[in-house]
Write a structure and sequence with these properties.
Largest interface: A-B, 23 and 24 residues
Helix content of chain B: 25-40%
Largest sheet of chain B: 7 strands, mixed
Shape of chain A: globular
Number of helices of chain A: 11
Strand order of the largest sheet of chain A: 4-5-10-6-7
Structural class of chain A: alpha+beta
Structural class of chain B: alpha+beta
Number of helices of chain B: 18
Helix content of chain A: 25-40%
CATH class of the largest domain in chain A: Alpha Beta
Strand order of the largest sheet of chain B: 3-7-1-14-11-12-13
Oligomer: heterodimer
CATH topology of the largest domain in chain A: Uridine Diphospho-n-acetylenolpyruvylglucosamine Reductase, domain 3
Shape of chain B: globular
Distance between the termini of chain A: 47 Å
Strand content of chain A: 25-35%
Bound molecules: flavin-adenine dinucleotide
Number of domains of chain A: 3
Distance between the termini of chain B: 60 Å
Chain lengths: 287, 757
Amino acid sequence: MLPEFELLMPRTLPEALEMLAGRAPDGMPIAGGTNVIPDLRGGRYRPACLVNVAGLPELSGIRQEDGMLVIGGGVTVAEVLEDPLVARYAPVLREAARSLASPLVRNRATVAGNLANASPAADMAPPLLVLDAEVELASREGTRRVPLKDFFLGVRRTVRQPHELITAIRVPLPPATARARFFKVALRKADAIAVVNGAVRVDLGDSGFCQTARIALGAVAPTPIRAYEAERALEGHPLTPETIAQAARLAAEATRTIDDIRGSAAYRRHVTEVLVRRALEGLWSRE
Amino acid sequence: MANFKVVGKPIRRFDALSKAVGATVFADDFKMPGMLHGKVLRSPYPSARIVRIDPSRARALPGVVCVLTAADIGYAKMVADIPGQTGQRERRGSETPVLAWDRVRYKGEAVALVAAETEEIAERALDLIDVEYEPLPGVFDPLEAMKPGAPVVFEPDNIVARWRIRKGDIEAGFAAADLIIENTYRVPFVEHAYMEPESGVAWVDERGVINIRVSTQVMEHFRTVARTIGVPQNRVRIQGAFAGGGFGGKEDITVEVFLALLALHTRRPVRLAYTREESILAHSKRHPYIMRYRTGVKRNGRITALQAELIADSGAYPYLSPYVSLYSTVMATGPYRIDNVWVDTVAVATNNPFTSAFRGFGGPQPCFAYERQMDEIARALGLDPLEVRRINYLRTGDTTATGQVVHSAVLLEESARRALEALGERTPDRGPIRVGRGFASYFQSYGRLMWLHDTSQAWVGLELDGTVVIRCGAPDPGGGQLSSLCQIASEVLGVPLENVVAYTPDTALTPLAGTTTATRQLYMSGNAVLQAATAIRKTLLERASRYFEEDPDDLDLADGRVFVKNDPDRSMPLADLVRICAAEGLPLSHLAMFKAPFRDPIDPETGQGDVFPDFTFGTFAVEVAVDTETGQVEVLKSVACHDVGRAINPAAVIGQIQGGSHQGLGYALMENLIVENGEIKTPSLSEYLIPTSVDYPTTQVILLESGTGVGPFGAKGIGEPALTPVAPAVANAVVDAIGVPINELPITPERVLRALR
Ligand SMILES: Cc1cc2nc3c(=O)[nH]c(=O)nc-3n(C[C@H](O)[C@H](O)[C@H](O)COP(=O)(O)OP(=O)(O)OC[C@H]3O[C@@H](n4cnc5c(N)ncnc54)[C@H](O)[C@@H]3O)c2cc1C
């Protein structure tokens, strides 16, 4: 059953930040509530106070600004799915959004909530990691930006301070020569937590050699991770079956998988290699 | 009645719209003034001695009205035997403590009850009941539980039931075989996961009768409630509601006894509704089975002998395990003509969640084994799987393994051919994606064991304006049971369907019709309504024959009129005829009782005898794509072809089949209640996955209508059969795709990869 808590309903961002500062550390933001409410019911935590950040005008909308795609801290996964800027500049994020939960949940679930919740299997994390996204964190004291790759600390732990809010997720507009792909294996087609998820992004420039390569993986370590070794194995090389196979192998080696009810460690490692290989192969092939 | 007006038409069920728009009042939606809220305290251990229960702190909490432990209810026990009208004496060990006092045998067993002014207070009170447990060693595997020295779940040993079939000469059968195929098959615990968790409201009325409005498949539980809590049977009334699914999980008592006790002790209305997590913890599951099969065959595929050993995990209490395991025994051979059969079945107690009825009632598990086995035979002999089945399929007039003669049509071959044809052109392989096809045929009983002496009653009455009321205590958990009864009355009385009303079952208002289980409701209550309506029809036509001066056989009823068949202009509104009859005191209502055939129990040593009124036959065929690198299985197409005898409402029948098909696909590929050391590792719908609407494409349904069933108008039953053949068909398709056997459910990606290694 839902425990009792105080619910604060700020109308502006400054008001929200004020409330969080005043109630830290036992005030907790709630956006879509699709993690918070089940967690409260399941007794995972018991905050004395929830601060509702859904609908704050400052956190709304997706815009293009100074070479960046800026996704507001209150944007829902459903909005990501519909947004023309995302479709144009970050289709990999769209792919991931389509695989997250189900239409009902997506209508409430926010991208910021997905990241702040810091599940190792969060579907928004791998595409945003390969896009070199930054998380914008605001508090009463000011604003800071943290690269997403440095944002996660452990299972459900991030660098976010309890009185900070994610106000935006900022994605540098990728060059037209870059391509990206999302992948996910789950035990069901909708409303299912990933057994393994991930994304790859490669920029071949006009040289035919990988100028940048990004490989991110979820559900294979305590946090979403980048497979740096695998990325290095591609950068400076052309995409060939050999380099792809090597990168896929290194990606699998980067995992620190565990056995759980969704899959064994060995299966996760194996599938990581298969999916990274296929994703890289798929970048420039038409399916 | 060759030309049906209403029967056989895909009508829109009267309950459909209200469910679609959320207007149906389910058991959980019902509120009473001054209503309290109940909660159940459950054991955190799968096996423990209770040292002490102290409810005093909970009782002292403001807002708590009542806390009940076993001591407060006279250490009551409930007989969890097969419900309803039964000629069978109770089986050993079928008693279950209502609340545990000395010992808990599974995690989630009820230990205390609370009623409080609010749900929150009731929940807090649970934390304040001090129970001291001393954990005991438990046993969690049926094979371990059968070994000497294993912890005993209840005295004298862990054997809940044994059944056997001895037919023909098994040794000679194997000696005559060219080849013997031997395999072991395993299937898991499965959760019903109906949309509506168990719930109800109870109160004591001004007569002192305990009223329980509850989501159930069995109205007759009022008797069990009365007996358990020690009141006369006429002091308990059960009001049904549309149930949000049951699938067998609401065949056993769920909240009824708890509600009755709390209402009786507080003298106030009490509501009790399980959360999803509590539902998963507290109610029965489908039995896991270990099934060892040995089949002797001739080189042409003809089976000479079949030996099966079936081991079912009954969990911590027997509930319906003795009967489920009997069903498995009777259906262990599949729909095949086999002269030499030897089956040994045992249901074994463990400290796992208890198992009981689940759609198919012991039919789906052996179907997985016998239909995988048929494909393994075909593979070993290099024969076509259809050919191997074709020469062994039962035919009308053949006997089953228990020696029962099948009298109805057996359209197995036709169903298999039609289903396979409908799969159409084979999808080609694509790199690591391999496509496979498989099918499975089955037989599944409908109607109850014949020695239970099953009956159903229905009352049908005409009102003075020519409208019709049906009173029949048939619970409707979503199959459209009540709607079909309306169709039957509408057909027989010639009254437009919208002028027929069927009441929701209520033991105070509707005659007892028996359980909505065993795929029996259309068969039993359909026949009861048919009988009642036919009696009224006779009265009407006899009176009209005097009016028209025609023979009753030359008259008919349709569209709310009575008319002369070969001169339809000579007619009269039915309402006028009704008024004439009423004025003359002719009976315009009728209470009918339909009796299934009664037989003696089967011989316990040989399993020989008649068991069921009839069987449904059919085939499920499926095409899958297997990703050989990730192990993922995609269902590409599926076809279900069943002989339903007669589709009273084809829309409802197709719905049943598509629902059963989806549930079966989940059983095949996804559903897996993981239990480790008595603990459910998939305690919510976030871990226990059931299919969503996007997981599998809609199953194409082909209806065969032999008209040879024992239901009304020749109908057979389809509720449970729809699920039975699905999982083995999928397994056969996966094996076809990857070329190596898979003999365990569910077929998870990991299992596929392991098979390929
Ligand atoms: C049925 C179901 C299926 C699901 N399936 C998936 C799935 O397939 N893939 C997947 O990745 N997830 C899934 N989820 C999880 C969930 O929907 C996502 O993680 C979602 O994106 C969380 O967003 P929210 O707005 O609902 O967050 P909330 O539940 O409101 O909050 C989650 C966390 O983020 C914090 N938070 C929220 N907003 C902010 C902010 N602006 N700044 C700082 N902190 C903030 C909260 O304090 C909390 O710690 C599923 C959930 C459900 C209920």
